[in-house]
Amino acid sequence: MSDQPITDLSEPRLASSWSAATGSWLPAVILLLVTIVLWEAAVRIFAISAFIIPAPSEIAKSLAAQWGTLMQATLVTAGEILFGFLVSVVVGIAIALVIVRFDWLGRALYPLVVLFQNVPKVALAPIFILWFGYGLAPKIGLILVIAFFPVTLSMLAGMQSVDRSLLALMNSVGASPTQILFRIRVPHSLPNLMAGTKIAATLSVIGAIVGEFAGASDGLGYVIQFASTQLDTALVFAALLLVSVLGIAFYYAAEILERIVVPWAPKFSQS
Amino acid sequence: MRIETIRAAGDRPAHIRHDDLISAKGISVVIARQLILQNIDLSVPKGSFVSLIGPSGCGKSTLLKVLAGLVQPTQGSVSIAGLAPVEAARKRMIGLVFQDANLLPWKNAVDNASMLLGIADKSLSRSDLRARGQEMLELVGLGDSAHKRPNELSGGMRQRVAIARALALDPAVLLMDEPFGALDAITRDSMGQSLLEIWQRTGKTIVLVTHSIDEAIHLSRHVHVLGIKPGRITESLDIALPYPRDLSVTEDPEFVRLVVQLRTMLRSSHQPGGAS
Fold it and tell me: For A55-261, CATH number?
């Protein structure tokens, strides 16, 4: 066997990208399908009441029956998430820039930001309702207080991890603090910032739903709360499903944004 | 020891002393109550190639930072063509190269090469900077990699861009802190050879911090040996091998003799307090 001439000198192929993709997705999809089938079977076999645990088929039926209402609610919630997320990112970046650029202000601000992080922000929801009413504003406020922190923290970490000899190079030619900030620190922080942004995207979904729980007349959070008071558990699950889809959509949107903004950043998937 | 440091400065005949581009007198540096450098006298003639060699912790990098104006000496003074190092740096007279290339990962090679120049001289247009960057990349042998980002370049190529970035300032002196320290032996040799060629083509003064005996002798005209605890110049060695030198110089009997001599000097420099 060993004296056979080697004819194939091409690279040993680990897996094509397509089969690698299906290879990584397939187990999860199979598990999901098996869970759904077992769920359906268990509900039928043990005759579990639909308002305790509805069967997947019941959820699908409810989804179809209430499609119009649910889509309208999804749109409202998606709008809140998007708006709140954008405000969080802008405010988060602004706070990080102020902390880095103005030393004394940073020293005043940073401990307060960390301190504020320990306030249970979900508990702020009723206060925001009291201040801003039942409209969009309290949801944006709640998303902001929940989601700005990972943005600020990740950007700070990125801006402060610039190599000292690079700063020495910049200083040696007389670069101003503002030049160092915008030419070096900010672009250097972008990979970190994008990681923080992905966390903020996930937290924005939570913020919107919590805001709607606390007081709303529309949106998926409102549908969940209303349906549960009606014991329409199938509708609760249908709305939950849509919340999850929204969450995944926002996460991947942030990830696509990351690939556009920081194409040079190391990718975790290339391990 | 004082006698030796004087000898270090006095190696050259007195009549060319005014040609010294860099002259450091009585440099002492104390950091966190530790005496890092003690009473160092160093002169670097214009256009020469000087290496500082010594064991880890001898303060050779700190000495380079003092010359660059990045560390203020506790005592003593440095003059670069009559200017304090910080002023000299502002006038683009100092080009710095560190062990890590420290390129900006979001910029390509040509923009990295012209980055410091763009900060130093705000009057230059984008196309001026590009042209200058390209010219410098060609000088370091990377003319056709101008549009590659650092992550597409090898370690040696990244260090070439770092050298191009320093040269783009058109500095009087190139201060290099173990620039090839992170490279493999083969790349190291070819980088050293390239540096010699760049030195001869541009006529820059070069001060190189290294811990490689071969590198110091292969490249430089003068080698200063630093001892530890505290850091000080214990001995100085003139390398009389003629330029241009290529790698075959390493087989020259004189080269081998110098390696042995420098190794002996380094061994005695390892003794704290300097009983050389």
Answer: 1.10.3720.10
pLDDT digits (tens, 9 = 90+) for B190-210: 899 999 999 999 989 999 999
Domain residue ranges of chain B, discontinuous segments joined by +: 2-93+171-269, 103-169
Contact B119 A173 (CB under 8 A): yes
Q: What count of residues does chain B have?
A: 276
CB A251 within 8 A of CB A202: yes
Q: Please compute the mean of the pLDDT values over residues B34-62 and round it to a whole number.
A: 90
Task: Identify the closest residue of chain B to A266 by CA–CA distance.
Answer: B151
Amino acid identity, position A251: Y
- Is the model's pLDDT at A148 over the cut of 90? yes
Report d(CA A13, CA B142) in Å as an integer: 33
SS3 A147: helix
Boundaries of every domain in chain A: 55-261
- The predicted model scores a pTM of 0.80
Q: What is d(CA A71, CA A23) in angstroms, rounded to the nearest whole number?
A: 33
CATH architecture of B2-93+171-269: 3-Layer(aba) Sandwich (3.40)
Beginning with the edge strand found earlier in the chain, give each strand of the sheet holding B222-227 in spatial order: B94-97, B173-177, B205-210, B49-53, B222-227, B232-238
pLDDT tier for residue B1 given thresholds of 50, 70 and 90: very low
CB contact under 8 A, A179 and B105: no
Which of B70, B92, B119, B158 to probe the A interface (max A CBs under 10 A)? Answer: B119
From chain A, pick out residues whose CB is under 8 angstroms from the CB of B116: 169-170, 173
Using H for helix, E for strand and C for coil, what is the string for A175-213? CCHHHHHHHHHHHHHHHHHHHHHHHHHHHHHHHHHHHHH
How far from chain centre, in Å, is Cα B274? 24
Q: Which residue in B69, B94, B100 is closest to A163 by CB distance?
A: B100
Question: Quick one: pLDDT band at residue B274, thresholds 50, 70, 90?
Answer: very low
Nearest to A140 by CA among A90, A69, A193: A90
Among A20-34, A93-107, B156-170, which is the least confidently predicted range?
Answer: A20-34
A153 Cα to chain B: minimum distance (Å): 22
- CA dist B236 and B9 (Å) reads 9
Measuring CA to CA, which residue among B140, B99, B87, B96 is closest to residue B115? B96
How far, in whole angstroms, is CA A268 from its chain's centroid?
17
Name the minimum distance, in Å, from the CA of A186 to any CA of chain B: 11
**H or E stretch covering A27:** helix A17-45
